[in-house]
Design goal:
Layout (H helix, E strand, L loop, with lengths): L1 H15 L12 E3 L5 E3 L27 E3 L4 E3 L20 H9 L6 E3 L5 E3 L34 E4 L4 E4 L4 E4 L3 E4 L2 H5 L5 E5 L2 E5 L4 E3 L6 E3 L5 E6 L2 E6 L5 E3 L10 E4 L4 E5 L5 E6 L8 E5 L4 E7 L4 E6 L4 E6 L5 E5 L8 E2 L12 E2 L1
Antiparallel strand pairs: 1-2, 3-4, 5-6, 7-8, 9-10, 11-12, 13-14, 15-16, 16-17, 18-19, 19-20, 20-21, 22-23, 23-24, 24-25, 26-27
Length: 363
């Protein structure tokens, strides 16, 4: 009887306890993160029934770089992420950290328009009735004067149009890359003069440097004085020829094998050396037999010669000494200037530019 009384008391207590709010079938309900229960069929339906959004979390397995919109319970393609246009109902696809990084990293040039998604397009594409930005932001707010903001990106003149704008330049300048103006160089554009071009009052005139004269009707400059020639050292010997190469002759004395050669034009003198010995020779082109005379004993392995015609000095480099040497043109003095050259192959000087001897160009 005591057990029966306890059972009746328990049944009475259960029947009197309020059951409102408790599920009749708890197995068909979803437990939210906040402890609330919602019907299982409301899980992942795109609506926040829990109040904390936990019934819409991890509803889809978005792959291939796509983004999961929790609020809308759908996947957004990778192309839609950070494009400046919200595709999730709560704009989550535009609030990622990567969107902020992209916005900071993407900078547009002065001649470009920055789309809402951070991409850059030419300013001239703005408000041209064609969507050039993926988010179509280049065709938004086209009823205002674009020239009022940073002069439309134009370097000089900005002209507002009924749809968009255009850049223009003052007289004497031309437009480059739709936005930048640069001075017009009529001489450079025409390229009719050989040496000096003078632009005055809308016309061009050609002139020549000292030592040259203008050829009538061609704008070309021709050297005055004697006809120029060139001297080269070849396997066949030192050869003299005109600039066209039509006239040439061998001027090397037969006892001297060919090597580096240089010239002093002021007195028609050649300086040359043989690959076989350590002697530098001097030869006058004004003499009839072109017989070379010994100027000085240097070192074997001379690879290059050069004459400073202003200070009357002779330079050479040698593979045996690994150094740059200098001597007076009469051969009375010589010294080593630079040592420790690993593979000296040539030397050149330009005294007109004021280079000191140790600034000779070495190969």
């Amino acid at each position: 009887m005591e057990h029966l009384g306890a059972l009746l008391l328990l049944l009475t207590w259960v029947s009197c306890f309020p059951t409102e709010g408790f599920p009749k079938h708890s197995i068909e309900q979803f437990v939210c993160n906040n402890g609330r229960r919602v019907p299982l069929n409301q899980r992942c339906d795109g609506v926040d029934h829990c109040g904390d959004g936990s019934d819409e979390i991890s509803c889809l397995n978005c792959t291939n770089g796509s983004f999961h919109c929790v609020a809308a319970a759908r996947c957004v393609s990778a192309r839609s992420i950070c494009d400046g246009k919200p595709d999730c109902s709560d704009g989550a696809d535009e609030q990622l950290d990567t969107c902020t990084l992209l916005s900071k990293a993407q900078t547009c040039a002065r001649s470009e328009f920055r789309c809402a998604n951070g991409h850059c397009v030419p300013n001239s594409w703005r408000c041209d009735h064609s969507f050039d930005c993926e988010d179509h932001s280049d065709e938004e707010n086209c009823d205002h004067n674009e020239c009022e903001l940073d002069n439309g990106g134009c370097s000089h003149i900005c002209i507002d149009l009924p749809f968009g704008f255009m850049c223009d330049c003052p007289s004497g300048m031309r437009l480059v890359q739709d936005t930048h103006c640069e001075d017009v160089d009529h001489c450079l554009d025409s390229d009719v003069c050989d040496q000096i071009c003078v632009h005055s009052n809308g016309s061009l005139a050609c002139e020549c440097q000292d030592g040259y004269e203008l050829t009538t009707g061609t704008g070309r400059c021709k050297a005055t004085g004697v006809v120029a020639h060139v001297v080269v050292s070849t396997q066949e010997g030192v050869q003299w020829m005109d600039l066209s190469g039509s006239e040439q002759r061998n001027i090397t004395y037969k006892r001297v094998s060919p090597g580096p050669v240089t010239a002093l034009n002021a007195n028609n003198t050649l300086y040359l050396t043989s690959l076989e010995n350590d002697v530098i020779y001097r030869m006058s082109l004004d003499s009839s037999d072109h017989r070379p005379a010994v100027l000085l004993k240097a070192s074997i392995g001379i690879q290059g010669l050069a004459v400073d015609w202003i200070h009357e000095l002779l330079y050479w480099v040698s593979t045996s000494t690994h150094a740059l040497h200098v001597a007076s043109l009469n051969g009375s003095k010589q010294r080593q200037l630079v040592s420790g050259l690993s593979r000296p192959t040539a030397v050149a000087v330009q005294p007109l530019l004021g280079y000191p001897p140790w600034s000779a160009v070495l190969g």
